[in-house]
From TrEMBL:
The keyword DNA repair does not apply. One of its GO terms (cellular component) is nucleolus. This is Endonuclease V family protein, putative isoform 1. GO terms for biological process: DNA repair. It comes from Theobroma cacao. Keywords: Cytoplasm, Endonuclease, Hydrolase, Nuclease. InterPro entries: Endonuclease-V.
Length: 269
DNA sequence: GCGACAG
DNA sequence: ATCTTGTCGC
């Protein structure tokens, strides 16, 4: 009977940023699209192995959006594809500079970034490039999200592509907190483990905290995006980690930054 | 009531 | 997210 729940708080918050009840509508859209998420392996390829007469995973994509600090309405979205068969060599990259009007609101990142990324994917698909990604890594969470539908899942459903969510920070959900996870990682029993299952107080497994490199104390937060199981997602992430951040994400990040700077200098007066 | 809150 | 060079160490 107390009408003051989290949803309403979000709506109040929304009006400060995106107009009346915007967040409520966004949450409805998320709940709707979430019904289409597939949380098991759903693709024709297999993980790379010595002998396999099946199609193998080879082209792994990564996406990122960079924003200019001096002009927060200016952004650059990037899509890169790396070749798993050739030491993660870059085989495709595409960038688009545009103005952003949608603000960043925690829990609603997709409404800010997904349209840009969908555009990049559609553009690539229309060229019939042989490098179209078999799986896409996204800088943002998948199931690890207040409503179980973060950017990686959102993009996966819209593009109908297997996606993996990669968070560099934990988004608090279901009793999981940064300090709590930090203590888990430092617990004696987990000292040497590189994977910590993120089980919330509800019992649901939201993803894993992963030490992607031996030298990295700070974990990566991996979750299912769409059309892939958590186990497979973890394996793909491990295969692409030269440094803490997996190469597809890292390359997209580096290149979108660089592209944005170049674009700004080009139109500087 | 206050704080927390992916990028 | 963004501002940013050098620097400490394997």
């Amino acid at each position: 009977m107390e009408g003051v729940n989290e949803k309403e708080n979000e709506e109040v918050e929304a009006q400060k940023h995106s107009g009346p009840s915007e967040l409520g509508k966004w949450a409805e859209i998320q709940d709707m699209l979430k019904k289409r998420v597939i949380t098991e392996d759903d693709f024709p390829w297999r993980l790379p192995s010595l002998q396999s007469q099946h199609q193998q995973l080879r082209y792994v994509g990564g996406v990122d959006v960079s924003v200019s600090k001096e002009d927060p309405s200016m952004a650059c979205g990037s899509l890169v594809v790396l070749d798993l068969h050739h030491a993660l060599r870059l085989v495709y990259q595409c960038h688009t500079v545009l103005t952003l009007d949608v603000p960043y609101v925690p829990g609603f990142l997709a409404f800010r970034e997904a349209p840009i990324l969908v555009h990049l994917l559609e553009k690539m698909k229309s060229t019939a490039s042989p490098f179209y990604p078999q799986v896409l890594m996204v800088d943002g969470n998948g199931l690890l999200h207040p409503r179980g539908f973060g950017l990686a899942s959102h993009l996966g459903v819209l593009a109908n592509l297997p996606t993996i969510g990669i968070g560099k920070n934990l988004h608090h959900v279901d009793g999981l907190t940064r300090s709590g996870v930090k203590e888990l990682l430092e617990a004696e029993e987990n000292r040497t483990k590189d994977l910590i299952t993120l089980r919330g107080s509800s019992g649901f497994i939201w993803g894993v905290a992963m030490r992607s490199t031996q030298s990295s104390l700070k974990p990566l937060f991996v979750s299912i995006g769409h059309r892939i199981s958590l186990d497979t997602a973890i394996k793909v992430v491990k295969m692409t980690c030269k440094f803490r951040v997996p190469e597809p994400i890292r390359q997209a990040d580096i290149r979108s930054r660089k592209h944005l700077r170049k674009h700004q200098i080009g139109r500087l007066e």
